[in-house]
User: Fold this.
Amino acid sequence: MLNQNQTPLLDALKANATRPHAPFYTPGHKLGEGISHPLADLLGKAVFRADLTELADLDNLFAPQGVIQAAQQLAAQAFGASQTWFLVNGSTCGIEAAILATCGTGDKIILPRNVHSSAIAGLILSGAIPIFLNPEYDPVLDIAHSITPNAVESALQQHPDAKAVLTVYPTYYGVCGNLSAIANITHQYNIPLLVDEAHGAHFAFHPKLPTSALAAGADLTVQSIHKVLGAMTQASMLHIQGNRIDCDRISKALQLVQSTSPSYLLLASLDAARQQMALHGKMLMSRTLQLANEARTKISQIPGLSVLQILSPPDQGRLGGSPGFVALDETRLTVTVSGLGLSGFEADEILDEKFAVTAEFALLQHITFIISLGNTPADIKQLVQGFTTLAKEYRRTNLNVTNPNLQNLLTTQGHALHFSPREAFFAVSETLPLAQTSDRICAEIICPYPPGIPVLMPGEIITKPVLDYLQQIQAMGGFISGCNDSSLKTLKVVK
Assistant:
């Protein structure tokens, strides 16, 4: 057993940052001496002394043999992996590398249609052919959950030559599907199960949280340590176990999608976050769960509001306790506000501007909040008070929104893939006014962000309902990412 008290990378960075020497290497600010005064005033000079490059004592991310290797081994043990890679380009590069390492041009990969845009980027980079599955769906809240074991089994029966299965666990809403069953089915075909676990890095550290992807049988999982734990933004990890994935291919794929000048601030934050969770994870998660449950209980009692929760037995027309929704991360809080006659976008803006309560993201009917180890009882009090006042002072008679069925839109799009994402991305394209793009083939990734689930991707036929949906999201305050024209007045299509 390794000593989880150790922080080899953090210690080496501290030693080099405090060692008196004349720096004649990158970065150009030279231990903070060249940093602009406004930036130094904001952050202090200490952080820039630690903004170092790949010095001899600091190891090399792409060929680790020293402190990075030691830090990754400690992380593998803490998170339950056989091998771990540190990521400085976010979980995005981990998902891309996972697809690149398992699929080549023309290879099939089975994945849900509500994947993050990073998976679409992985398809474009690899040339893989997506076999999209439709996740289970809550038609009342317009929320897509997880794909089901039956859907995976049916897809593998139809496409036994698929090279991998990729799934999202948990979803942005904290919903977890039956990952153990999906792993068992996938492994019957001797192919790997890849998991986008960007929002589940904390699962391994408390029994009241959902089972971690590795414990459920995943071959590879990518976690955003910065999203729910204590690492800096962009700092993530890729873990594998078993022998279905070639470690060398993972390493080579990561060299394609990671910076050759990795930030040691990010790398050291991963080392520190791992130590924190290995030593104190259960205590920190117990406190976080307590805060989250307090918020959930109090907000659910406010008239006009409801919270997403697992239902057992399932209500009519609602999911919960089903193959696509077997567990819920209780630290993720989704509040439905449409009962106040407000859209999620409107309520989000009011909470932020009037009550200084800032959510993770909003959609038409609801707002989602991430409650993590960094939140305090004062945060929860402010959150509950914000919703209490919102319900009393900002309620309207009804919500004047025609809420399109997003699941139907995604289902339609998933069956309208006329070119592979790679073919369409690299095809000759033209830019047209939005009104003239209906029935044309999309040449770019278009998605409301967050959560970053593409409504259109390269290779799909553009339909009028999808265009209407995007315009409605934008009109209500949502942000559309991926398109060249951020105003959404034009779109790129295959010529």
About this structure: DSSP finds 16 helices and 19 strands in the chain. Residues 264-300 form the longest helix (37 residues). The mean pLDDT is 93.
